[in-house]
């Protein structure tokens, strides 16, 4: 692998012990995937350090204590507790205290601490051809497919990329891998973010690791729907990029016609319905929580929730959780959107979500924290991603429906299905 | 078929260890197939269900995709329930490679079939991730 003078100097420790470790790890990664050299990155979405995982916050503290600093604009991924208003979720305070240590470590490293799976709604908006690294697969697919930035599905190494400003040139950093491998003809008329998570989920399950070319949508999805589409694919498959001609840079609308030789699949309404059916496993009257905001809600979605909840009251015995990032929550507060939401009894939670908080049963936090996941009967959700991971990580049934019907469900106490 | 005792694959993650073989014929997901507290395989799709990967040289044809795999490898290491080394057929996902580098778990790829056909569970293997070599002890 060809290294720059600065890469070599970092390997020799010229930028301190943390960057030496980071560069050595990035070189090993590059050699594993036959990278010819490293690229300069312009953005990194990095690991938060998660309090629900043993020794995980310490990973970030260790880097910070050895002098690590972010070399490029960066943001932090979702965490395991709302660090400001944690009482609403009944998280143990011990967990919150540990989670805040990650916030301190990132502060020392100069990471943009938004603690979210949607850093773009907090203002991190990498542009066309920006090489980047991302720990969150939903961020990867949005940045590749909607913004035209270049990202692989990374793990913890996104933080090394952020510290060094470098990343090995392989995968979706190369033009040759940013070409369609499959054609998907959509014959359904998805509307709203839930439908788009379901469509994405159905596509990802079908194509697994691929770059699908999406055709047949009758209108340009809005930004929230584009986000939902990619997140769905990244959840059921290994999709890191889709191509929607006219949306995905640099593909123009006419590129939809140049795909004669690709394997082709069709997605009809029955495929969407099947995803809803799969994630409607819970009792229709026995739910504890209704959840909105997976991935973390945008400001536009907060406006939508506020309009839906204006003058309404969440039914006794039901909790309505709205999860977003701290930046959007602050904007919503300043814009007067939190008032009607909170007046309804709904909770607006940042930094975490049901699957990322102390509900998870597949994690193994330090026993000293005293984390006991609550017993939940059913969670109503408006996202196929949240549904999938509630099943896998909380081991709790779900009911999947549209955002509007989920709000009605929370208000009436009776589940209202999408179809 | 000759009885090989040395296998040359492709070194993916550095490090050298010796440990007992645990052979699987099904793709493995570090997110979901294994209980991090114990190292017990719990995934229905794995032919290792009911076995334990802690301290083993895990031989799998492929890793199944998940961007979260790195974290589970790191958690296995934190709990002392990690495999000593991993031998794959296909090149593993970037997330698995990142988790293995972070956790100091050597990986050699391109060998799962050849070794799986040659050794049985418990055979002692020396894995050299730097050179991509695996040797029957």
Compact summary:
With 419 residues, chain A is an alpha/beta fold. Chain A has 14 helices and 13 strands.
Structure description:
The complex is a heterodimer of chains A (419) and B (137). Chain A has helices spanning 5-11, 17-32, 57-65, 93-109, 137-147, 157-164, 193-207, 223-236, 269-278, 299-309, 326-334, 338-343, 384-394, 403-412, and strands at 38-40, 43-46, 74-76, 132-134, 166-168, 182-186, 212-215, 264-267, 289-297, 319-324, 347-350, 379-381, 398-400. Chain A has three domains: 5-175, 2-Layer Sandwich (Aconitase, domain 3), CATH 3.30.499; 179-277, no CATH class; 280-412, Aconitase, domain 3 (2-Layer Sandwich), CATH 3.30.499. In chain A, helix 3 (57-65) links the parallel strand 2 and strand 3 (74-76). The longest helix of chain A has 17 residues, at 93-109. By secondary structure, chain A is of the alpha/beta class. The N and C termini of chain A lie far apart (54 Å). In chain A, helix 5 (137-147) crosses helix 8 (223-236). Chain B has one domain (6-136): Phosphohistidine domain (Glucose Oxidase, domain 1), CATH 3.50.30. Chain B is 20% helix and 26% strand. The interface between A and B is medium-sized, with 31 and 26 residues.
Q: Fraction of residues of chain A in helices? A: 25-40%
Distance between the termini of chain A: 54 Å
Largest interface: A-B, 31 and 26 residues
Distance between the termini of chain B: 19 Å
CATH architecture of chain B: 3-Layer(bba) Sandwich
Rough shape of chain A?
Answer: globular
What profile does the largest beta sheet of chain B have? 8 strands, mixed
Strand count of chain A: 13
CATH superfamily of the largest domain in chain A: Aconitase, domain 3
On the 0 to 100 scale, the average pLDDT of chain A is 96
Question: What is the CATH architecture annotation of the largest domain in chain A?
Answer: 2-Layer Sandwich
CATH T-level fold name of the largest domain in chain A: Aconitase, domain 3
Q: Shape of chain B from CA axes?
A: globular
Radius of gyration of chain A equals 21 Å
- Assigned CATH class of chain B: Alpha Beta
Low-confidence stretches of chain A: none
């Amino acid at each position: 692998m060809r290294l720059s003078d600065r890469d070599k100097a970092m390997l020799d420790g010229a930028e301190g012990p943390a960057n030496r470790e980071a560069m050595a790890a990035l070189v090993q990664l590059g050699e594993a995937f036959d990278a010819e050299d490293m690229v300069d990155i312009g953005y990194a979405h990095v690991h938060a350090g998660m309090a629900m995982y043993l020794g995980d916050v310490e990973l970030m503290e260790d880097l910070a204590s050895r002098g690590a600093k972010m070399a490029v604009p960066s943001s932090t991924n979702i965490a395991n507790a709302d660090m400001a208003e944690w009482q609403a979720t009944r998280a143990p305070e011990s967990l919150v205290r540990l989670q805040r240590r990650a916030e301190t470590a990132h502060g020392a490293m100069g990471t943009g601490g938004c603690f979210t799976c949607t850093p773009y709604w907090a203002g991190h908006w990498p542009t066309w051809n920006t090489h980047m690294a991302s720990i969150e697969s939903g961020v990867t697919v949005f940045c590749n497919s909607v913004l035209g930035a270049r990202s692989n599905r990374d793990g913890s190494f996104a933080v090394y990329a952020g510290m060094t400003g470098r990343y090995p040139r392989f995968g979706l950093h190369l033009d040759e891998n940013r070409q369609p491998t499959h054609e998907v003809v959509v014959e359904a008329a998805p509307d709203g973010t839930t439908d788009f998570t379901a469509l994405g989920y159905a596509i990802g399950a079908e194509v697994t690791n691929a770059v699908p070319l999406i055709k047949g949508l009758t209108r340009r999805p809005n930004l929230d729907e584009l986000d939902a589409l990619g997140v769905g694919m990244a959840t059921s498959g290994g999709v890191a990029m889709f191509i929607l001609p006219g949306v995905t840079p640099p593909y123009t609308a006419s590129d939809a016609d140049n795909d004669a030789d690709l394997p082709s699949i069709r997605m009809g309404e029955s495929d969407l319905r099947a995803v809803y059916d799969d994630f409607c496993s819970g009792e229709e009257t026995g739910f504890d929580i209704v959840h909105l905001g997976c991935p973390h809600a945008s400001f536009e979605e907060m406006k939508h929730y506020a309009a839906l909840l204006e003058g309404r009251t969440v039914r006794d015995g039901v909790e309505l959780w709205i999860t977003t990032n701290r930046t959007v929550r602050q904007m919503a507060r300043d814009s007067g959107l939190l008032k009607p939401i909170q007046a309804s009894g709904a909770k607006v939670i940042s930094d975490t979500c049901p699957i990322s908080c102390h509900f998870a049963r597949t994690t193994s936090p330090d026993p000293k924290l005293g984390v006991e996941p609550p017993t939940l009967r059913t969670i109503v959700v408006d996202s196929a991603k949240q549904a999938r991971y509630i099943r896998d990580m909380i081991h709790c049934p779900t009911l999947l429906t549209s955002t509007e019907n989920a709000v009605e469900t929370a208000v009436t106490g009776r589940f209202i299905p999408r179809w | 078929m000759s009885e090989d005792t040395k296998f040359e694959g492709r070194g993916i993650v550095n490090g050298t260890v010796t440990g007992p073989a645990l052979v699987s014929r099904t793709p493995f997901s570090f997110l979901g197939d294994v209980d991090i507290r114990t190292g017990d395989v719990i995934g229905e799709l794995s032919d290792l269900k009911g076995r334990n990967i802690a301290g083993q040289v895990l031989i799998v044809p492929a890793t199944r995709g998940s961007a979260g795999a790195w974290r589970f490898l790191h958690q296995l290491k934190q709990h002392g329930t990690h495999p000593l080394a991993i031998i794959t057929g296909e090149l593993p996902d970037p997330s698995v490679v990142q988790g293995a580098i972070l956790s100091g778990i050597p990986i050699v790829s391109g060998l799962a079939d050849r070794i799986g056909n040659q050794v049985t569970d418990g055979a002692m293997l020396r894995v050299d991730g730097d050179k991509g070599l695996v040797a029957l002890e």
